[in-house]
Amino acid sequence: MLPVITALADRGEWVDAVVVSKEDSGTNHCDLRTTDGRAISPSLSEGDGCRDARTKGDELRVRYDPKGVAGPTEDRSADSYGGMLMALFLVAVLMGTWGGVRQSTWDRQYGGR
């Protein structure tokens, strides 16, 4: 496994790719080509981005080894939870602010300290 990780780290290239075929006999494998027509070998495995919803013609961004030693991996930066975490943080800040204002109003109304 270490040579595979090293191969992608040393000479891996990010490219836009298109799924040209999908084998889903138990474990999914997608055959890919770059958008300019070069074949990407070996195929993309299920664990690296060839999910059930993936179909022929889908476009995705992958990192692959031009020498074919390491299998490609999908760019998952678009799948990050950054947007959701930011929304949750903003909701927490808004609720805290609202609670603080509400408590201040309550204290003034009923003589609390």
Please tell me about this protein's structure.
By secondary structure, the protein is an alpha+beta fold. 35% of the residues lie in helices and 28% in strands. The chain contains two helices and five strands. A five-stranded antiparallel beta sheet has the order 3-2-1-4-5, with no helix packed on it. Strand 2 (29-34) and strand 3 form a beta hairpin. The protein is elongated, with a radius of gyration of 24 Å. The termini are far apart. The model has no long low-confidence stretch (mean pLDDT 81).
Briefly say what this structure is.
The chain is of the alpha+beta class and 113 residues long. The chain has two helices and five strands.
Which secondary structure elements does this structure contain, and how are they paired or packed?
Layout: H1 2-11, E1 13-23, E2 29-34, E3 39-45, E4 59-64, E5 73-74, H2 82-110
Antiparallel strand pairs: 1-2, 1-4, 2-3, 4-5
Radius of gyration: 24 Å
Query: What fraction strand?
Result: 25-35%
Instruction: Find the count of extended strands (DSSP E, 2+ residues).
Output: 5
Overall structural class, as computed from helix and strand content, comes to alpha+beta
Shape from CA axes?
A: elongated
Number of helices: 2
- Order of H and E elements: HEEEEEH
**Helix residue percentage:** 25-40%
> Main β-sheet, in a few words?
5 strands, antiparallel
Give me the side-by-side strand order of the main sheet. 3-2-1-4-5
Distance between the termini: 64 Å
